[in-house]
Specification:
VWF_A, alpha/beta, six-stranded mixed beta sheet, VWA domain-containing protein, Uncharacterised_CoxE, elongated, vWFA_dom_sf
């Protein structure tokens, strides 16, 4: 066991106590922080000082953050705990529908609700009852007819979920299926009521009966199952959505009877990573932890065109046979050459039976294809759908075998033509 030297603290101990409670909030929000890191943080702050807010932030960041996915949680907890003097009112507004008549006017930012839950853990969240004026009846509102919790969770944006909601959403995604219809093959198989006559089988039957044809053998095209190939963006803007989609992908890869011949998974940010073998692990947490260790560019930058070029060059012939369906999960925000992005998306589209683009930005009602990357990719996909909630993934499962479904592509293509 590691041993720590005696640490000299200020007499009042307020800064060390605040760092301790800050670390406790981070641990409640999901960061793996032990007592050793708290001592290291106190020692680091004592050595560096905290006259500059920026230095104080990065000192604690270096002590408490060691994975890219922890940055958003740390940022929100730090902002609420150290930087905003009205953080308690903001946290309560995230946890309750109203505070003394002040309604919540905006959605929570990334990891903000989790940060609020962590900081309010153990606190009394019940507000005192307001005294009603004399002679005025107090109106009670029956909320029993409101949307059920599970139905509400289905429509909630992944980015706005709290820790408890994310855990419940993962359990719901594990039960969600993605069934696909089989495809007719050029191979033929015997079928008593088949539409085509099988001459060779008919002659074989006749030879067994002295050359007399008593029955015509028939055949139908055999059925085959397509592959599912998922290309998932794990850049900083897509981090939370990617985690939920990968949980869904793991459930699809390990559930029998849905029809997919094989499920292939790839992540990309600044480079392409094949995570197919990790999806075969039965335990979802172990599978995604192994995939996260292999994908070194998690929550980094985005180079969609370059990553699609790598996939088309190295993997398309291996995994896109037999009428594969490709799910491309990305927001399309790419700063690289738009010409290369358009060429590689077109090549991917020509290699796949169907190319379906899931974009979480479609959650906004006023979404328009203004970004250069979106304008370059949109003409070369078969369907353009939202991918920000459980309901959007359920809608995908209902239409994934429908070749006529285009999602929002037709509407956005008309907007591009204007």
């Amino acid at each position: 066991m590691a041993s720590y030297a005696e640490l000299t603290l200020p007499e009042d101990g307020k800064i060390s106590r605040n760092i301790l409670w800050f670390a406790r909030a981070l641990r409640k929000a999901g960061l793996p922080i032990g007592s050793g890191r708290v001592i290291d943080a106190i020692r680091a702050v004592e050595a560096v000082g905290f006259t500059e807010r920026r230095d104080f932030y990065w000192t604690l960041h270096a002590c408490f953050v060691n994975r890219p996915e922890h940055r958003a949680v740390f940022d929100q907890v730090f902002r609420l705990y150290w930087r905003d003097p009205r953080y308690m009112e903001q946290m309560m507004s995230l946890m309750l529908p109203a505070i003394r008549g002040v309604q919540e006017e905006r959605l929570a930012q990334a990891a903000e609700k989790r940060a609020a839950e962590a900081l309010l853990d153990g606190a009394n969240r019940d507000l005192p009852e307001a005294e009603s004026p004399q002679g005025e009846e107090q109106v009670e509102i029956d909320a029993s007819a409101t949307m059920a919790r599970e139905e509400r969770l289905k429509t909630l944006d992944f980015e706005q979920m709290s820790v408890a909601e994310i855990a419940e959403a993962k359990r719901m995604l594990a039960r969600l299926g993605l069934p696909v219809q089989p495809l007719p093959s050029r191979r033929q198989t015997a079928a008593p009521l088949g539409q085509a006559i099988d001459p060779r089988a008919t002659l074989r039957l006749a030879m067994r009966r002295g050359g007399e044809i008593t029955r015509l053998a028939r055949r139908d095209p055999a059925l085959r199952w397509p592959n599912l190939v998922v290309l998932c963006d794990i850049s900083g803007s897509m981090s939370q959505y990617s985690r939920m989609v990968l949980h869904f992908l793991h459930a699809v890869a390990n559930r029998k009877g849905q029809g997919w011949a094989r499920v292939h998974g790839f992540t990309f940010g600044t480079r392409l990573t094949n995570i197919t073998r990790h999806l075969a692990t039965r335990d979802v947490d172990a599978a995604l932890a192994a995939a996260g260790r292999e994908a070194q560019d998690w929550s980094g930058g985005t180079r969609i065109g370059a990553c699609l070029h790598t996939f088309n060059r190295d993997w398309s012939r291996r995994v896109l046979g037999q009428g594969a369906v490709v799910l491309l999960i990305t927001d399309g925000l790419d700063r690289d050459d738009s010409g290369q992005l358009a060429r590689e998306t077109q090549r991917l589209h020509l290699s796949a039976r169907r190319l379906i683009w899931l974009n979480p930005l479609l959650r906004w009602e006023g979404f328009a294809p203004r970004a250069t990357g979106i304008r370059a990719m949109l003409p070369h996909v078969d369907a353009f759908r939202a991918g920000h909630s459980i309901a959007s993934l359920e809608a995908l499962a209902a239409v994934i075998s429908d070749s006529a479904d285009t999602g929002e592509k037709a509407r956005l293509m008309r907007a591009l033509a204007r």
